[in-house]
Amino acid sequence: MSIDLVEAVLTWIVGGLLAVSATLTLVRITIGPSVLDRVVATDVLVSIVICALGAYAALSDAWTTLPLLISLSLVGFLGSVAVARFVARDRDTPVPDPMPDRLAEEDLSARPLPADPGPHARPSRSEGEGSR
Asked: What global pTM score does this model have?
């Protein structure tokens, strides 16, 4: 078995695996239930393209693809960080109660009374002001 045959077989195997993974990633982008799923799948697709370019560079000794690999890596990283910051900002904002007038309709007498704070509780300002 010659080296050329092994290289050809490995090239087809790597190409097939990259093609299958890119196809599955495109399916996730298409049917992703949320925007965050689609963004993560897009980041995975950029990583697959980087792997394909790296495999091409290794097989053909094309060192000229190195700037493209670095640029795509930087774009993928910055895109992921930007999306993560926007998602974190959206989750930090308080969500308003969808039914604020529901409390007015409830019977307030049905609510349990607050628990007794006990003998070691600090007095409130109005109770403590008279003792000075």
From this structure: 0.64
Whole-number Å distance between alpha carbons of 67 and 24: 27
Distances from the Cα of 34 to the Cα of 23, 30, 47, 87, angstroms: 19, 10, 20, 12
CA–CA gap between residue 66 and residue 46 (Å, rounded) = 15
Alpha helices in the chain, H assignment, sequence order: 3-31, 35-60, 66-92, 102-105, 125-128
For residue 122, give both structure tokens.
């600090």
Task: Count Cβ atoms below 10 Å from residue 76 Cβ, excluding itself.
Answer: 18
Render pLDDT for 19-48 as a digit per residue (tens, 0 to 9): 999 999 999 999 988 888 888 899 999 999
What's the rounded Cα separation, in Å, for the pair 73 and 38? 18
